[in-house]
Automatic annotation (TrEMBL):
SUPFAM superfamilies tied to this protein: Protein kinase-like (PK-like)
Name assigned to this protein: 2-polyprenylphenol 6-hydroxylase
Family indicated by similarity: Belongs to the protein kinase superfamily. ADCK protein kinase family.
Record-linked InterPro entries: ABC1_dom, Kinase-like_dom_sf, UbiB, UbiB_bact, UbiB_kinase
GO biological process, one term: ubiquinone biosynthetic process
Domain annotation ABC1 atypical kinase-like: ranges: 97-342
Sorted UniProt keywords: ATP-binding, Cell inner membrane, Cell membrane, Kinase, Membrane, Nucleotide-binding, Transferase, Transmembrane, Transmembrane helix, Ubiquinone biosynthesis
Length: 514
């Protein structure tokens, strides 16, 4: 679908931004370079009459994105979590896109449920409310299961949303290529890879069976975490286009007045929400990647309840260790070690000067640690790091996009509860605990055990491997005549086979020790 028709889609986008007055706001917020401003004017102003009007009651950018469709709304939701990039005013305007969009009808929702579960919705649910939340991809209804009498939350995809997203994402790819062409310096940010990553996330959200699986895994990972809950998935009442979970009763995380009235300690709550996020990211490598206030509730007993599992983040063990060491280095103000970690992980090109990079990191960190607690910000740190990485030629790490974005969102949630929160002090115990378990001597023994286990799997194949190597040695002996090549060639594999045998023994010994 990535054909010439996408040019028309971009023209329509520019025209809508221009018509609603959003173009200037967006360009100013991103401090766009002159070539991009010129291109935007070319795409927008002459075709202004072709743009959508949108809802005149909304602020310009929110009005434009709502008129352009679900993929644009989703981008707006992401930008609403990044006041460090777009400013507080624009981020606040975009926050309305999180869960306050115009809903589709109850009749359409019931029709989708009936089709998905192959039974009339009125037989499945004895009560089915109007929408309680409506976002770009789906909306949520409160219902009561006719069989069990339990109160549940039913999430239903918007009609036609899959086709609309595919069409818009195709246009985004074209836009990314135009940006790379007009602004060569943007290529290190890998805009096409960012769009590809966005596409993968969104396509996952369009299959609610995957979201149900994410919710189930998340609940399993966090079942022993004090002060945290995940609603149970009702698999028998879930499918591709709808999903049912236990109803989460609680106060919205952003309602400070209600939290105070309920006697909830907001200072403790602010630290817990940050620490839980870090624990899930570092310990499990699987975290809720859309933790804004709309997706968090507080139960009567003070537990944090997470909802909406459409965007979940995953990072592998190696990346988690790198991220933890970087955070730990900043917490300890050990900028030389932070620099070394960047080079060891390949995040900085090897031809750059490590000591110079460490000094640049010190220039990032020291001003932040010298600030009052109300001004110590992860968002500010990431913004400064962005400047440093540009100077040292680092590319965007697409696997860390969700992690970094969510860290900023969670910081915002925590600060809304306690403006004087020191995020570094709150993060330190979680990061230190992970470092002790994953980078210390115990971690080395665990890594050795896992390596030996892999080697031991070759045990049953060793006789055939040795026989094959001896046959190959015999076949190449004549070609290696007059040299020691033949003997040298097969000694290596034989030693490898012997190593695997030793590995089996070591695996048994280590397994017994643990």
């Amino acid at each position: 679908m990535r054909g010439p028709h996408n040019i028309w889609r971009l023209v329509r986008t520019g025209a809508t931004l221009e018509r609603t007055g959003a173009m200037r706001v967006v360009l100013d917020a991103f401090e766009a370079p002159r070539p991009l401003r010129l291109a935007a004017r070319i795409l927008g102003w002459p075709f202004k009459v072709l743009g959508h009007d949108g809802d005149a009651a909304m602020p310009p950018v929110t009005r434009a994105l709502s008129a352009l469709g679900p993929a644009y709304i989703k981008f707006g939701q992401i930008l609403s979590t990044r006041p460090d990039l777009v400013g507080d005013d624009l981020a606040g305007q975009l926050r309305v896109l999180q869960d306050k969009l115009p809903p589709f009808t109850v009749e359409e929702a019931k029709a989708s449920i009936s089709y998905e579960l192959e039974r009339p919705a009125d037989e499945i649910f004895e009560y089915f409310s109007p929408p309680v939340a409506a976002a770009s991809i789906a909306q949520v209804h409160k219902a009561r299961d006719a069989e069990t009498g339990e109160t549940v939350a039913v999430k239903v995809l918007r009609p036609g949303v899959e086709r609309a997203f595919r069409k818009d994402i195709d246009a985004f790819y074209l836009a990314a290529r135009v940006i790379e062409y007009l602004s060569p310096s943007s290529r290190r940010l890998r805009p096409i890879d960012v769009i590809r990553h966005f596409e993968g996330v969104v396509m996952g959200e369009l299959d609610l069976r995957l979201e149900a699986a994410s919710a189930s895994q998340y609940a399993s990972n966090t079942k022993d975490d004090d002060g945290f809950q995940v609603p149970e998935v009702k698999w028998g009442l879930s499918g591709k286009r709808m999903m049912t979970l236990d109803w989460a009763e609680g106060i919205q995380m952003g309602d400070n007045a209600a939290l105070d009235a309920a006697g909830i300690d907001r200072v403790e709550l602010s630290e817990r929400v940050l620490q839980l996020f870090l624990k899930h990211a570092l310990r499990d490598g699987f975290f809720h990647a859309d933790m804004h206030q709309g997706n968090l509730k507080v139960a009567a007993n003070g537990d944090i309840i997470a909802i909406d599992f459409g965007i979940m983040g995953h990072i592998d063990e190696y990346t988690r260790r790198v991220y933890a060491e970087i955070l730990y280095g900043f917490i300890r103000r050990d900028y030389q070690r932070v620099a070394e970690v960047h080079f060891e992980a390949g995040y900085v090109p090897p031809d750059r000067d490590k000591d110079e990079f460490a000094r640049a990191l010190r220039a990032v960190g020291e001003p932040i640690f010298g600030m009052d607690a109300t001004r110590i910000s992860m968002a500010r740190l990431l913004a400064y790091l962005f400047e440093v990485t540009e100077r040292f030629g680092m590319e965007t790490r697409t696997e860390l996009i969700l992690l970094q974005r969510t860290m900023v969102v969670v910081e915002g949630v925590a600060r809304s509860l306690n403006p004087r929160m020191n995020i570094w002090r709150a993060a330190q115990p979680v990061v230190e605990d992970y470092i002790r378990g994953s980078i210390g001597p115990k971690a080395v023994l665990h890594d050795l055990q896992e390596t030996v286990k892999v080697l031991s799997r070759f045990g049953p194949r060793l006789p055939n491997l040795v026989e094959d190597m001896l046959i190959l040695h015999s076949q190449t002996k004549d070609r290696a005549s007059g040299t020691n090549y033949g003997a040298q060639w097969w000694l290596g594999p034989i030693w490898a086979a012997a190593g695997a045998i030793v590995g089996i023994a070591l695996s048994a010994a280590i397994a017994g020790a643990f």
